[in-house]
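Dear U.,

Please find below the material for section 3 of the report. The protein was modelled together with zinc ion; I have listed the sequence and SMILES used, followed by the predicted complex structure.
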Amino acid sequence: MSCYKMEFVWLGTGGAFTNRENEHGAAWNYQSNLVVRMWFVERDKPVNVLIDGGTTLIKALARAKISPLEIDYVFLTHLHSDHAGGLGELQLINYFVKQNHLDVVGCMHPTSKIDVSAQPVFIGVGNLTYDAWDKCWCGGNETLEGMKRPADIELFANVIALNEKEPVIRIGSVPNAKNGVEFMMFQTSHVSNSNMFAPSYGVKWTTPTGERVVFTGDTQNNPVQLKTAHFSSADIIFHDTQTTMVNGKPFKSGVHAHILELVETYKDQPQILEKINCYHYDDDAFSKHDPEKYGMQPFVIPYFKTQKGYKPTDDEKKSRIPFGEGNKWVFEVSRETRAKMLTRQEVELGQVAKEISDGLVEEVEPKVRDKTDTVVKVRKKK
Ligand SMILES: [Zn+2]
Ligand SMILES: [Zn+2]
């Protein structure tokens, strides 16, 4: 891969009902949405990959100083409001701002020059993104003033429907993304009833320094599905967790693994437990649990709290909630490795340019509906 640096910007690490900004409470968080920022040797600006956008998305992006216009890719794990509820707003912002070539947007904080031409690429397994449009976003976004037809998702985003049998995509910085970072989605069991099974997915990828990362999305405690297939090969596991306690006993919602349930499940496998970083927790999680005492990693904390100058509330000062320690989720190759990547990339880019000029390949848009993955924007001519 030509990705030399990757950073995980946790916009929030709270559960679906996290209490956003409550200066009276110990917690101050947003929903569990993550930006994976990737720097490639061929581009100056990072590529921002958003995993889920809940109803707190726009505010949480502002707290992380990322403009909604800078989101290049969006992975959608499932349709709950804390994962999909803010993406309709993201679509409208991108559409109106880029359409009108505005470069200043009242409440936003563009941190760099915006590419006004590109709408974000939405990625989901099978028809998930189209389902999200039909069931979540369409109501607000399909009628646009003056437009003669109903708008559809493709007006707001480039949609990539991953092949259900092989939900893998490479995201890179050059048209043929052979050198990109591979992201794989995998199905999890989150919510079902007697006749319906709500689709939900986790995401797996590898950092430039070689750590294999598993992000569960939302899932029940499901060791058969997760342990063998994904957890054993991972180096870092981000697991959504329920942390609720009622009368001193764990409250199990049945849709998320309870933190104590994970401890029980993996008690004979400390090598898995010690890879688990819990997120998607209740606002009072820090007063209820200490994951390190359970043999796990500490709770993941939101990015904005790790930044210099963050002013904790009085309650946070009193509590054990960490802040202002710098973002630990940064993965960067050495200078020497990057120098080698740059040299190799010049050769590879030269080859692509030559193939285009020789008419061997043409550039195509990665826009597909009901088709499979393809982020490969350069296609060989017959
Ligand atoms: Zn959730
Ligand atoms: Zn959910």
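For the text of the report, you could mention the following: The first strand starts at residue 3 and ends at 10.

Regards,
Y.
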